Structure formats: C-alpha cells, structure tokens
Amino acid sequence: MDSGDNEVVVDFPQLIRVYKSGRVERLFSSPIVPSSPEDPTTGVASKDIDISPEIKARIYLPKLTNLYQKLPILVYYHGGGFCLESAFSFLDHRYMNRLVSESNAIVISVEYRLAPEYPLPVGYEDSWTALQWVGSHVADQPGFEKEPWLVNHCYFEKVFIGGDSAGGNIVYNISLRAGTETINGGIKILGSLLCFPYFITSKDFKEDSLPSRMWVFVNPAAENGVDDPRINPFVEKDRLSLLGCSKILVCVAEKDELRDIGIQYVEAVKKSEWNGEIELIDAEGAKDGKNSCDRLKQKLKDVEQERDTLCEKLKDSEEKLIALRQELKKLNLKGNVLSSN
C-alpha cells in the first residue's frame, strides 16, 4: 500500500518539494561544511554553538591583534525564503569568513528552524531568542553558561543585526520588536543591515507569483496573506517609527524583482517619525535571481570577483613597493659611500 511517499502535494520547481507523507525534499542548497579553527584564506576562526536545545549557530572571530581586543558584534540571519539554506552551508560559511575578515567584527550566524517543518512564526521566534542569548552575556543570570569569545572580545555597545532576503525580513521584524520589548542585558541595536529584503504586497505581486506563493507556503497561518504586516511593511506604516535601532542600511539590486519595494521601504521609513539614519545602496547591473538563494549566490559571486580584483591590485602595489624600497636602500648605501669619501 502506497504510504504517499511518492505523491507530491507541494512543488516549487528547482527549490523545494513536499510529499503527502510529510517528507521534504530541498532541491536547492549548498553543501554543509564544518567550522574551522582558522580559515586558510582569511585567518578567521569559527565554531558551532548551541543557543538552546532547538537553536544552533556558527560564531566567527577575526584574527586578533591582541588578547584583550574588543570588537563589534553582528547577529546574522541567512536567506532562503524561510525554507532553504543553512548557517552551516558552504555559501554562507564562505561569505561570513570574508565579512568577518573585512569588517573586523564578531559574527553569529543563526541556524533558525525552517518551514515547512517549522512554519512561521517559529523562524522569527528563534531569531529573537538568538539576540536575547547575546544580551544574556551582559546580564548576570545564575546557571547561564557564557560564550568565552563574546565575554572576552565583544563590545556590547556596538551590536548590529543583519540578513539577506528572508534574513533581511527577519531583521526588519526584530528591529520592530526591539522597539517595544527589552533585550536581555539592556543592550541596544546600533544598526540593522537589510540585503535584498524579502518584502511583498498584494499591489505589487499577484497571488500566483512565486514570492506570494512562497510566503503562504512558509506562513500558512497568515490571515491576510501577503498583506500580513510581517511581509508587507506598509500595512502598518505608523509602526515604522518604532524601529528599535539607530541606523539602517538597505541594499537592493537593479534587476531584482523586489528592488522597488525595498526602495519604497526606505522612503516610508524616512517619512515616518523614526529618529535614526537610513541609507540605501542600489547595486547597478546586479542580476535578478529566480529565488532568494539565487540572489545570495549572485551576491557572493560579485563579492568574490571584486575581492579577487582588489587582491591583484594590492599584490601589484606590494611588488612595486618592495622594488621601490630596494631602490631607496641602494641609493642610501650609495650616498653613505660617497659621503665617506
């Protein structure tokens, strides 16, 4: 008798498939990779930690200049439409290593639970719990085991949150929540980074569009569909003034189908009574992906190409500098000989 394991009930081609038996097949993902005590390219150290029995994370520490160095901290939420990818994936691991190296900050990449096994709002709650866990390192809570990297090197006056695509949406919702609820230890979010944030509206996207169908899939309990305030930030515009951070950076891509809504979000925040600074970066020529993970993959590819170009320029400049130093040394020696005569 067929158990339904071969009968497909939900199918997003090339992305994710759900069978009648409940089995979930993720068709788009990068392989899971281990953490590393020292990344060979960047020198960044990473390790996996348990935030709670249900929530894990990968923490990254840049190469330190001294044992007592204090650094900003970024809590990061990966993209993938709330149902794909992982904080432990190859793409995210490589991206975090480079981000940590270039920003010189501690990063905690959160492995929040995914839909459909754990439909929203589970992902939102996991993400909030991770931020509260960070704050618990400031508070004195009996029985709480603190992470040494945070205790020894985190500057809790500079806490940032960031994410791409679905992760950018998570950042928005956490920022709102932080405006009305207290974070453990009384810490404040200094800045929020929203890369290609997953925002949609019924006005801009038809009900049968991929972004709309994906939202209903990961959040079946949403009463108003794509006009749920968690995915449509314009439903309750007055709440934008409650954003609990001082600075916001929003990144959009020229050919991304979500670009216009990202720009509208920036304008809406500017018009609200929110007392902070918001900045927009519009990446010209960036290609639109067919889904959230494609956008992340393209972003990482662009970052890698830019980094490789920069490294070549730095290498060329370094070689020229070495040659110049050698010439100066020769001239100096020659001058010493002449002066002695």
TrEMBL record:
Residues 74-285 form the Alpha/beta hydrolase fold-3 domain. The lineage of its organism: Eukaryota, Viridiplantae, Streptophyta, Embryophyta, Tracheophyta. Belongs to the 'GDXG' lipolytic enzyme family. Residues 286-334 form a coiled coil. It holds the Pfam family Abhydrolase_3. One of its GO terms (molecular function) is hydrolase activity. Keywords: Coiled coil. It comes from the Eukaryota. This is 2-hydroxyisoflavanone dehydratase.
